[in-house]
Design brief:
Blueprint (H helix, E strand, L loop, with lengths): L3 E6 L2 H23 L2 E5 L2 H13 L11 E5 L1 E3 L9 H8 L25 H16 L12 E5 L23 E4 L9 E4 L1 H4 L4 E6 L5 H7 L18 E7 L17
Parallel strand pairs: 1-9, 2-3, 2-5, 5-8, 8-9
Antiparallel strand pairs: 4-7, 6-7
Helix pairs in contact: 1-2, 2-3
The structure holds ligand LXAUTJHC.
């Protein structure tokens, strides 16, 4: 697993634009070398900010949208179309404005879908979809994710893996149902740390002063049960994309002044 690298931008708008530019390059490179790209999206303010910046970037047309597979790191287990679902917000920020292949948009199930309110069955179905797409280049039971993005919650949660909950303790399954989430809604579906760690690159997005203590805790040696963000690492690269407000409580030894 890779050692975290930090890039600190002036503010959240610049962080989102720089992450979007970086994402375009990674997708275009992956499509050039393998013919396709697999990207895992995150919900939350910072993740949606990156998608909106990507929608506004003229270079977005360099992406072959029909050869892009999109997956989700987590989902709020709500009815299809609910404004709080991560996919609804992603559609609004970007997905509805680009020519994606609908068969390659791998949304997590909704609570009014084929599994009804059974989040465990819905999680198992998503795990099967991942395993089906894994192929020989995949790692374990998930596809070869080129980039997996994660927002970092103010409590250090990533995806829907919350501190001291069963989620970050999961070592076998790739997808789990989450119950009693401290952040609404209480029921969710989430990739686990083993699935996250199968990604080539993991990008953790954190902007704003409400993220400062979470960033400092996760990067100062905390364990993944107490601080799930600390356990999110990519095989080749782990990149923390921050703004100055989110980086404000980092020890000076970790803060890279040149990148601000
Ligand atoms: O509920 C969620 O929250 C986190 C963090 O969101 P933020 O708005 O504090 O940035 C997000 O990463 C996750 O996907 C989402 O379900």
């Amino acid at each position: 697993m890779s050692t975290p690298q930090l890039v600190v931008h002036r503010d959240k708008e610049l962080m989102a634009q720089a992450a979007a530019a970086r994402l375009i390059t990674r997708i275009v490179d992956a499509q050039a070398s393998t013919g396709a790209a697999n990207v895992v999206l995150t919900g939350g303010r910072n993740g949606n900010g990156v998608l909106a910046a990507l929608a506004a970037a003229p270079a977005r047309d360099a992406i072959d949208w029909g050869r892009l597979d999109l997956w989700w790191g987590d989902e709020r287990f709500l009815p299809e179309g609910d404004p709080e679902r991560n996919v609804t917000q992603a559609r609004e920020a970007l997905l509805d404005s680009v020519p994606l292949d609908p068969k390659r948009v791998h949304t997590m199930p909704a609570s009014d879908g084929p599994w009804g309110a059974d989040a465990e069955a819905a999680a198992e179905a998503y795990a099967e979809e991942l395993a089906h797409a894994a192929g020989p280049a995949g790692h374990g039971a998930v596809p070869a994710f080129d980039v997996l993005m994660l927002g970092v919650g103010p409590d250090t949660h990533v995806a829907s893996l919350f501190p001291e909950h069963p989620g970050p303790r999961e070592t076998e399954r790739t997808v789990i149902g989450v119950h009693g989430s401290p952040k609404p809604p209480p029921t969710r579906i989430s990739l686990t740390l083993p699935a996250i760690r199968a990604a080539r690159e993991v990008w953790l997005l954190a902007a704003g002063e409400d993220k400062a203590s979470a960033v400092a805790i996760a990067l100062s040696g905390a364990g993944e049960i107490q601080a799930p963000a600390a356990g999110a690492r990519g095989r080749a690269r782990t990149l923390w994309l921050l703004d100055t407000a989110a980086a404000a409580q980092l020890p000076r030894s970790l803060y890279p002044p040149a990148s601000a």
